[in-house]
Structure formats: C-alpha cells, structure tokens
Write a structure and sequence with these properties.
five-stranded antiparallel sheet, alpha+beta, globular, 559 residues, Glycosyltransferase, 2 domains, disordered N terminus, Jelly Rolls
C-alpha cells in the first residue's frame, strides 16, 4: 500500500516532518564516515598523552595534552564506536585513551565533568570490564570538583577567576586555582554540561550532596545567566556575598548578545539535569531554551546550523558552528524520549540530515575531523572541533537506539513482484483565501485493503515555526470519488472530534508535530478504502492570515 502524491509539493516549513528513509540514509552515511575518521585518530594522536580540541583551518587536528578541556572526547568517541560496532579494537583504543585522562580526576579544572565523564563515564556505561576502577575515578573526580569549584554562598561551581581591573573590557582569567572562594568568581553557561559528573555519582550510590550542589548550580544559572526570552548570557561575575558584579562574554560578540554554542550548552544541560532529577522546572527550562535556540537559528539560517553568535552581523567574523547544532540534536533526541513531542524528533532529524550533507560532513576532503565548519568563538575562523564530532556521533546513536535500523529482508532467488515501500506522509503548503479560494490536495490509495490515515489542516500552530501569516481557523473537508458536492468527512477544530486523544497519540506515533490542546487546527483520523481522495482546506477567519498546510500521514497497522 502506498500514498502517491499527485500534486506539486510547496516549500517545506522550517521544521517540516522528515521521511524515515531520509534520516536513516543520513545516519548510515554519518556513522560510516565517523568510523572511517576515528579509525585514523590513534595514529594521528600517536599515544594516549595526546588529545585534540580544534583543527587548524586546513582540517589538521592540533594535538594537546590531557589538560585541554576536550581531552574526554577522543576516548568518549572510541567508547561510542565500541558500543555501536562491538569491535574489540575500539575498546582497546577507548581504554587506552581513557587511562590517559585519569590524572584529571585530582587536578583542578572547571571542565572536570567534560574530561572525566565523557571518558570514564561513557566507558562505565557501555562496557563492564572496568566498572570498579572507573566508578572510583568518577567518585574522586566529583569530590575534587566540589572541593575546588563549589561555593555555597553563590550556590554554583566556579568556571574562572577573573583578576583583571577591567574584567569586562579586558578580562584576565585563570581556571586552575584550587580555591573556590577566590574572587572574582565567574560562572559561565558552559558549566551546566559539567553537572553530569556530580549528578551521575550522586544518583548512583555516591555522595547525594553532589546532586544538591548540581541542582543549586542549575537554579543559580537559570536565575542569573538566562534571560526572560530563554536566551543565555555567557559569563556572570559574582562578588563574595553572592551578588552579581558584572556580565560579559568570552566567546560571543558582545555581553548582550547570545553565543550559539552557549545556548546549546544550556539546552543540553537542563535536559540532562532533568534526566537525573525528574524536577519539572528543569524540563521546562530545557524546553524554553530549546525553543529560543530553534527560533534564533531559523532567523539566521535555513539549514538548521547557526552562526557563532545569534545577534552579531552575518559577516566574516560570525562563522558557522556545527558544534552548536550537534549538541542540540543530541539533546533533542533526549527530549523526545522524555516527552514524546514530535517537535524534538523533527528538529533532531533535520539537524542530523543537514550535518550529514556535503555542506558540513568532511567526507571527500582532507579534513581529519568528522564535521567541518565548527567554531571556537565569534571572530575565529571555521575549523573542526572534537566536541562537534562527539555530539554529532551521540545524536546519531541516540536516534538509532530509539529507532533501530530496519532489518533488510533476504532477497528471494526469483522475486515475484517488486517491493514498493509505503510513503509515510505527504504534505503541501500554500495560500488560502476567503470563500471559494480554497487550498486543494489530492492523494490516491492503491492496493486491495483499507488503510488508516491521519489528515490535518494546520494554521495557528504554524506560528510556532515562524510562519506569521498562517490562517487562524482552518477547516478540512475530505471528498472521495462519489462525493462531488458534500464531503465524505469534515472537521473544523481537531479537539471537537470524538477521538482527540487518539488523534494526538497517532500524531506522535507517525512523527507529526504536536497540535496544542484547544488549537483551531483541524484533523481527522480515518480508515479509507483504496480510491482517489481530495482534501480541501478553507479559512474560517478571512483576513487573519493566508498560509495553510495540508498533511496526510499513513498510519501503520498495530503489530
């Protein structure tokens, strides 16, 4: 059975649904190329005392010692590839480079979480060979992190000490001090990512005070580093009494602008804190920051990859940043698993497809990283970045875990007829006027059996995707070949159906974005016999807007 489209498709929405075949193909491409690039990494690094953070502009990794904040990403990616493939060589490399990071568990650093959790934590989760040892290292690191970084008066872990007389205009920062009471005490939005180390230890049998400190840090960060519109400040400097001394940016354009990777850290960070704590306010914060990230990205870019700063001019100083996109794609897969909301799944899929394209994937180039066009900060050129690769790989594996690749059936020796896969959905967007100025779409159901379809006429909810001229009250009418004048089925507001819960559940199952309860969008869940069908979309509020969307989703039968 299939739903062939018999009309031209209009331009896709910013967050249009993605066909399963497209995302699977992109993930297949991305994972195969990641495996190829990472297989060369041990020889590029040479030994387990060498790591990488950024490439140069030619795509050659710049080797760094274990003290780089990025030292956990190489072993973390080896662990991910071991988990993905089961090949023993990946575990050998993973254990070797994880051991190279070991000393960071007792050394002062604001990014102990990145260094230790992405290496030892990932290894602990995917391989049981070193459980006791890895667990002890994480407990030691979490205790070191708290002793050297946490200030109870401020209720946060310190990122840096800024010893400059002009901390905003001419900062002079130090990250290695072991005294968390040294002023000036700075917190950056990045520190949300380091909370996974204390949260993991504290929720898995370690000191529960680690959880309390991480939650306090998340609350302080939300209060002081996140604006009312959900955008983020990069750095806040505190006085000894816990009051704010100043705000500044270290990697964005100006103190009042939003650094895109910092926003991504916030999305991922609050999502992760909710995963460990189940505190509703953490999920709400993640959702608010996600919405801000997606809206600001859409205002800059049509391919889901933002520039380094959301507010800076789009010129040579404002480079693209695939790392920000990759971080949010991984977080979005987590949010989808937590909430079931299709908007997160669609965002993750759209980002992964974009990153897996020739625009960003380094395939066919001399680049050593997996992705091109990441950014260290505003004003710096586009380069490869270890964390862009790490979160891109993580996003793909999270998708593959939730949506395993379908088994390929054995090809019979003498196939009887060609296999035609069902089309999962069709959609078209167009203009809807008053009266008879309708939007019309047609589809055909072939085969010998009835199928179930979800048909939607969307207007108000398009505003969530940046469509400001959407119709305010759509009505859909479905005609079959015998209903020339009166429709066979019709709906005005989708909640007025007798089965709104089933409609909402089905939308999530087929990957459609959610329609808010009480919205005036229209929807029908129908079982239709093979035949020719027409959907008409009318505007019940002329003058409110003129853009509408018709969607038809095939609903697979329950197994």
């Amino acid at each position: 059975m299939r739903l062939p489209l018999v009309l031209s498709l209009c331009a896709a929405l910013v967050s249009a649904p993605v066909l399963l075949a497209d995302i699977e193909s992109s993930i297949d491409t991305g994972l195969a190329f990641a495996e190829e690039q990472l297989a060369d990494l041990p020889s590029i690094l040479g030994n387990n005392s060498q790591f990488m953070d950024y490439s140069n502009t030619s795509g050659t990794w710049q080797r760094k010692s274990r003290s780089t904040w990025c030292s956990g990403f190489a072993p973390g990616m080896f662990w991910y590839m071991y988990d993905h493939t089961g090949a023993e060589q990946w575990r050998t490399w993973a254990r070797n480079w994880t051991n190279g990071v070991r000393a960071r568990s007792t050394e002062a650093d604001n990014d102990t979480g990145f260094q230790i959790f992405c290496s030892f934590g990932t290894g602990y989760l995917v391989s049981d060979a070193d459980d006791a040892d890895y667990w002890n290292v994480m407990q030691t690191a979490a205790a070191t992190f708290a002793t050297q970084r946490y200030n109870p008066t401020i209720g946060a872990y310190r990122a840096w000490t800024n010893s400059s007389a002009d901390p905003v205009g001419n900062p002079r920062i130090t990250a290695s001090t072991t005294n968390p009471n040294t002023m000036v005490f700075e917190v950056n939005i990045d520190m949300m990512m380091n909370m996974e180390l204390p949260l993991f230890v504290g929720t898995n049998g370690g000191d529960s005070a680690h959880v309390d400190r991480a939650v306090a840090h998340a609350d302080t960060t939300w209060e002081d580093l996140v604006r009312g519109d959900g955008s983020s400040i990069h750095v806040v400097g505190y006085k000894s009494d816990g009051s704010i001394d100043y705000i500044r940016t270290h990697q964005g354009w100006t103190p009042d602008s939003t650094w895109s990777r910092g926003q991504a850290w916030g999305v991922y960070g609050y999502t992760m804190v909710y995963r460990y704590t189940n505190l509703p306010r953490m999920l709400q914060r993640a959702e608010i920051m996600f919405d801000a990230f997606m809206a600001k990205t859409a205002a800059q870019s049509s391919d889901y990859v933002p520039y380094s700063d959301f507010d800076a001019p789009l010129n040579g100083d404002n480079s693209r940043d695939t790392s920000a996109a990759a971080i949010v794609a991984s977080a979005a897969m987590d949010l989808f698993e937590m909430t079931g909301s299709s908007k997160y799944l669609e965002a993750a899929r759209n980002i992964i497809i974009s990153l897996s394209s020739s625009n960003y994937l380094a395939q066919g180039t001399s680049y050593q990283p997996i992705l091109r066009k990441a950014s260290s900060k505003w004003g710096d050129p586009e380069v490869g970045a270890s964390f862009a690769d790490y979160y891109y790989l993580e996003a793909m594996l999270r998708h593959r875990e939730q949506f395993p690749a379908p088994d390929v059936p054995d090809t019979p020796d003498e196939p009887t007829e060609p296999f035609v896969p069902p089309m999962t959905n069709i959609s078209t967007r167009g203009l809807v006027g008053a009266g008879d100025e309708l939007m019309i779409a047609g589809f055909v159901i072939e085969g010998n059996s009835a199928i179930t379809v979800l048909i939607r006429g969307v207007g108000p909810t398009l505003a969530n995707f940046g469509v400001l001229t959407a119709i305010g009250d759509p009505q859909i009418s479905v005609f079959d070949s015998s209903s020339d004048v009166l429709p066979a089925f019709a709906n005005d507001d989708w909640g007025s159906n007798t089965n709104p819960i089933e409609i909402a559940s089905t939308a999530s199952t087929v990957g459609a974005f959610a329609l808010p309860a009480g919205s005036k969008d229209a929807a029908l869940l129908l079982t239709l016999e093979p035949g020719i069908y027409t959907v008409q979309l009318a505007n019940q509020q002329p003058g409110v807007g003129n853009v509408g969307l018709i969607e038809v989703y095939w609903v697979p039968p329950a197994e």
